[in-house]
Amino acid sequence: MGCSGSIAAGCRTTAFLLDDDVLIDAGTGVTDLSLDQLARIDHVLLSHSHLDHVLSLPLLADSVMRRRRGRAPIQVHALPATLDALRAHLFNGIIWPDFTRLPSAEHPVLELRGFGLGQDVDVGAGRFIEVLPAEHSVPAVGFALKSETGAWVFTGDTSPNPMLWQRLKDLRVAHLVIETAFGDDQRALANVSRHLHPMELGRELAQLTQPAQVHITHIKPGELELVMGQIAALGSPHRIQALSLGQVMELR
Ligand SMILES: [Zn+2]
Ligand SMILES: [Zn+2]
Fold this sequence. Notes:
The structure is a single chain. About 25% of the residues lie in helices and about 20% in strands. With about 250 residues, it is an alpha/beta fold. A hairpin with a 7-residue loop joins strand 7 and strand 8. It binds zinc ion (ZN) (2 copies). One zinc ion binds next to loops.
């Protein structure tokens, strides 16, 4: 629902919807869902605390609180450090009310649940999402949704990440969603903010030892053609496309 590094008309920040009830990151892409669709979300997994990945969560809680009355809280899964950041800087009564205690402390609309690297997060209906390592400027993770025929893998925001490729050797990767936040001309900015640029993407993908459909995400608005041109020039053997708004990826 969102695959851009920031906002502009037609650009939304990171958010994926798994089936109709699991949200992976809560960027501005969430704002395209109807109230009914929002109310169906039972689980939210957050890759890290940066605003472009969490900013719809406080508003989601507010929007669905009345509709979800009598239902279990929405489970928000993230690293303990990410949850601490949400408590301190977002649900602090100043930026936004503490929706982990609203409408009441006994029956809140949100429940924060910590996970650890390598954990399989149970999101119901036989679905498990593995927490993958990421290397970013704040504690961060990626995710793998595993099925019998292959896995959907999302790197999260990351700089070069050898541990990820080590783990992916043992997973059959059907779809790899990987970030490339900056063009090569902005590699200094990419390095300091712990993101990838196309030259580094090439070195990362060389460690993916199996054929997979590769989807590029987190490109800044207005930079898509530049970045995808630099990626095409890498001559990678993988099938690489820019992820697009509304795109559906299927695991059978
Ligand atoms: Zn980030
Ligand atoms: Zn980001």
